[in-house]
Design brief:
Helix content: 25-40%
Radius of gyration: 19 Å
Number of helices: 8
Strand order of the largest sheet: 3-4-5-11
CATH architecture of the domain at 2-162 and 195-225 and 275-286: 3-Layer(aba) Sandwich
CATH superfamily of the domain at 2-162 and 195-225 and 275-286: NAD(P)-binding Rossmann-like Domain
Number of strands: 13
CATH class of the domain at 2-162 and 195-225 and 275-286: Alpha Beta
Order of helices and strands: HEEHEHEHEEHEEEEHEEHEH
Length: about 300
C-alpha cells in the first residue's frame, strides 16, 4: 500500500522508479519511467542485480513492514527473514554507491513512555514487541553498514499509518475484539499519534529533493497533532464502517492479553490508552510540511 502511493507520487515528478514486489500493480506498462521486478524481498540475487545494474540514487526500503507486506503476527521467522534481507540490501547499496537509503522503521521502538514530555528521536528505546525488536535491529545493521561508505542513511520511525479508506490502525485503538464493539472512554478527548500515508510520501519526496548530506539521521514521521478517539469514531461513523459504540470508564476492566502483545502488531492493551503517545515530528518538519490529517485526507 505505501509503495503504491509512493510510486504514484515519484512518477508524477518524473523520477525513474524500479519497483520490487511479489504482487503486480497498475503501473506496469503504463509509464515508461516505471520498471517492475516481481520478486520476494529476500531474493538476494534478484534484488542485488537491480541495485547494482541501474545506477540507483535512492533506495526506499519498505520491505518487511506491517501494513505493507507483513501479517500482523511477527514471529521468529519474520525476524530472521528481515535480518537476512537487511544485511544483503545494505551491503549491495553501499557497494553500488547508492546516495540515499531510507529505512521504514516504527515508533514502536520507543515502547511505552510515561510523562507528558514529547517523545523525540533522542528518547530512550523501550520497545518490547517482536516488531519493535525487528526494526531496532534493522536500524542498527544499517547504521553499522553505512559507516563504511558514502551512502546517507535515513531512518523513518513511522507511526501507525492510515488513509481515509485504510483505517485499521485507528480502529485498533477504539475496538474491543472480545466483545466485538467499539468503545470510548468518557468523551473521547484523549488521542494518539498516527501517520497519514501522504505525510510519509511527502517526507520521502523531501529527502529525495533535498541537498545531499544535510538530512542523515533518525526522524519521527507522524502527523503533527494527535488524533482523538472521538475523531476516529466520528470518521468511521461517517463512512459507515462502525456499528455500536459503548461509553466506558477508564477504570473498567477490558480484554487484556499480555502474551499476545509480544507477537501481534495489532494488539492494543486498552489499559495503556492514557500513556504518552505524543511523538514529536519537529525534526521531520524541516524536510516537509506534514499538512495531512484525518480531517483533510482522501
Amino acid at each position: 500500500m505505501i509503495g503504491m502511493y509512493l510510486t504514484s507520487s515519484l512518477l508524477k515528478k518524473k523520477h525513474k522508479v524500479f519497483g520490487i514486489d511479489i504482487k503486480s500493480n497498475e503501473f506496469i506498462g503504463a509509464d515508461p519511467n516505471y520498471t517492475f521486478i516481481q520478486s520476494e524481498v529476500n531474493d538476494k540475487d534478484t534484488v542485488e542485480n537491480v541495485i547494482k545494474s541501474n545506477g540507483i540514487d535512492t533506495i526506499v526500503h519498505l520491505g518487511n513492514t506491517v501494513d505493507n507486506d507483513l501479517d500482523q503476527y511477527i514471529t521468529d521467522m519474520e525476524l530472521k527473514k528481515s535480518k537476512a534481507t537487511d544485511k544483503f540490501i545494505y551491503a549491495a547499496a553501499r557497494d553500488a554507491g547508492v546516495k540515499n537509503f531510507l529505512l521504514a522503521s516504527t515508533t514502536m521502538v520507543y515502547g511505552l513512555q510515561k510523562g507528558r514530555e514529547p517523545i523525540r528521536e533522542t528518547t530512550a528505546e523501550k520497545g518490547n514487541t517482536n516488531y519493535a525488536d525487528m526494526k531496532m535491529l534493522s536500524e542498527k545493521l544499517m547504521q553499522k553498514e553505512f559507516k563504511k561508505g558514502d551512502t546517507i542513511p535515513v531512518i523513518m520511525r513511522i507511526a501507525p499509518v492510515y488513509t481515509s479508506e485504510y483505517t485499521q490502525n485507528l480502529l485498533d485503538r477504539v475496538y474491543d475484539p472480545k466483545d466485538d464493539v467499539a468503545f470510548i472512554f468518557n468523551e473521547g478527548d484523549y488521542g494518539f499519534k498516527f501517520c497519514c500515508v501522504f505525510n510519509l510520501v511527502d517526507f520521502i519526496n523531501g529527502i529525495i529533493a533535498g541537498p545531499q548530506g544535510r538530512y542523515e539521521g533518525i526522524y519521527n514521521v507522524c502527523d503533527t497533532r494527535q488524533t482523538t478517539a472521538k475523531e476516529i469514531i466520528d470518521h468511521e461513523r461517517e463512512h459507515k464502517r462502525i456499528g455500536a459504540v459503548v461509553q466506558r470508564s477508564p477504570n473498567m476492566g477490558l480484554s487484556i492479553s499480555k502474551s499476545k502483545a509480544k507477537t501481534d502488531y495489532r494488539y492494543f492493551d486498552p489499559s495503556n490508552t492514557f500513556m504518552n503517545w505524543n511523538y514529536d515530528n519537529t525534526k521531520a518538519q524541516r524536510i516537509s510540511p506534514f499538512r495531512w490529517n484525518l480531517g483533510n485526507t482522501k
